[in-house]
Amino acid sequence: MVSVNRRHFLAAASAAAFTSMTSLGRSAEANDELRVVVIGVNSIGNTHLNGFPKIPGVKVVGACDCDSAVLGTRVEEFDKKFGYQLKKYEDLRRVFDDQDVDAVVVGMPNHWHGLATVWGCQAGKDVYTEKPCSHNIWEAGQMAKAAEKYDRIVQIGIQRRSFKHLQDFFQEVHEGALGKIKNVKGLYLSRRESIGRPTSQPTPPATVNHDLWCGPGSTKLERAKYHYDWHWFWDYGNAELGNNGPHILDLCRWAVGAEEFPTAVSSIGGRYAWDDNGQTPNTHLLRYEYAKAPITFEIRDLPTATGKKDTCDYMGLSYGIVIEGEEGTYLGFDTGKVVDPDGKTIREIKGDTGSDGGRQLHRENFVKAVRSRKTSDLNCPVKTGHLSTALCHLGNISHRTGEAVSLSSLSERIQDQPLMSDAAARMTEHLAANGVDVATAAVEMGRTLTIDPTTETFPGDEAANRLLRREYRAPFVVPEQV
Ligand SMILES: NC(=O)c1ccc[n+]([C@@H]2O[C@H](COP(=O)([O-])OP(=O)(O)OC[C@H]3O[C@@H](n4cnc5c(N)ncnc54)[C@H](O)[C@@H]3O)[C@@H](O)[C@H]2O)c1
């Protein structure tokens, strides 16, 4: 641990000197080849391996993964497609040591985002970090400090920020295109399967360096499927709220025009219909208070009814946002429409979404900022990613500090909150359709937490404040001083 910390301390010290040189050098020679390594290449990382080489002047020079099977496959596929061998790394610290690398893409699970970004900045690399920005609120602050201190370009992978038609439309919304905004609803009405309950202690695949995979989190393995299912364990993931929530809540916050934390959060939810050992809710309602307009968010991972394969919708939308304005309603996700009170479309909001679900436009934006050395050129710098990701963390903190109450008592408990009452009625009906006995079932009633947007903390609330950060497993510790 000491040697690792010392090595990174030394790397950081030399990075500080190196940084100012590269910043000047790159802005002076904007057409230099940009050498990129992607870290974590199973799923989203693979799309980055394939997307970055399409940008003129960018060369992907390596891939890093602590699962040698994943790494081997991706490097082989890359060679077939692009005609050259990538350098392979098992340990991301070797990527940061490599002076031949200019920028890294963090496609690892959520619990690695903060530390990998800080290490990357300390080593003088520019960093494209996938959403959610961080695994907890505190470490996002450390990421921002590191980006600033080492003068690094850090983009967070909330790619819809790079859609020009949404930039333009939300600007119009801020200027009153829909009249005063009454509320914004986020929707992620999806369908997933139970992850099961292993009958014996699972073991990591032989190809995985489990210690490296776990990094800051616990090494206790509780899931049968090693990759992806970590989303449903608090040590590594942030629930569906922190998985697809950053995309949707970012749109909600963008629509409201809120550039700070909300003043309060509340949450209702639970994990229903599945007999498995996932820890996070599969049904979740959230509410965020902003002076401009409240945001609510409905998450469902169960189908319309037991045995069905389809997903629910609200006003015809399963994923996206509904902005309810006094003079019009907007419904959309990548693209959208403004409807009149009868639901008739009066305007379409559409434009170029590029390829790969918008990610290619976002990568291009990152490269543009790397070349200009201006964080202001980024469509989703750490601050933007943090404010939207924080909404996920705040909702999870409300959930995790709450208490179980009977589902049948819910309507009475929230009768003074019309938006939540409506959403809870829809949720209860949906649970009943999925075989939940709503007369006897419990629901986790998250606490309504008051937030100080200036300090980004919960005044006087020790239990909630404790969840603003995590315990880091040494040596994988986000430093107090970046
Ligand atoms: N922007 C988007 O639209 C989008 C879409 C999907 C996923 N994501 C985000 O991307 C991240 C990865 O998601 P995924 O679905 O690809 O997950 P995944 O579990 O399928 O893949 C993660 C990979 O990271 C590797 N990894 C873990 N720890 C590592 C370490 N210390 N060093 C090197 N490699 C390591 C794993 O071995 C695995 O191959 C998540 O944070 C997710 O939220 C973003």
From TrEMBL:
Family annotation (Gene3D superfamilies): Dihydrodipicolinate Reductase, domain 2 (3.30.360.10), NAD(P)-binding Rossmann-like Domain (3.40.50.720)
PROSITE patterns in the cross-refs: TAT
Family matches, as Pfam families: GFO_IDH_MocA (PF01408)
Superkingdom as given in the UniProt entry: Bacteria
Listed InterPro entries: Gfo/Idh/MocA-like_OxRdtase_N, Gfo/Idh/MocA_oxidrdct_glycsds, NAD(P)-bd_dom_sf, TAT_signal
Segments forming domain Gfo/Idh/MocA-like oxidoreductase N-terminal: 34-157
An annotated Gene Ontology molecular function: nucleotide binding
Protein name: Gfo/Idh/MocA family oxidoreductase
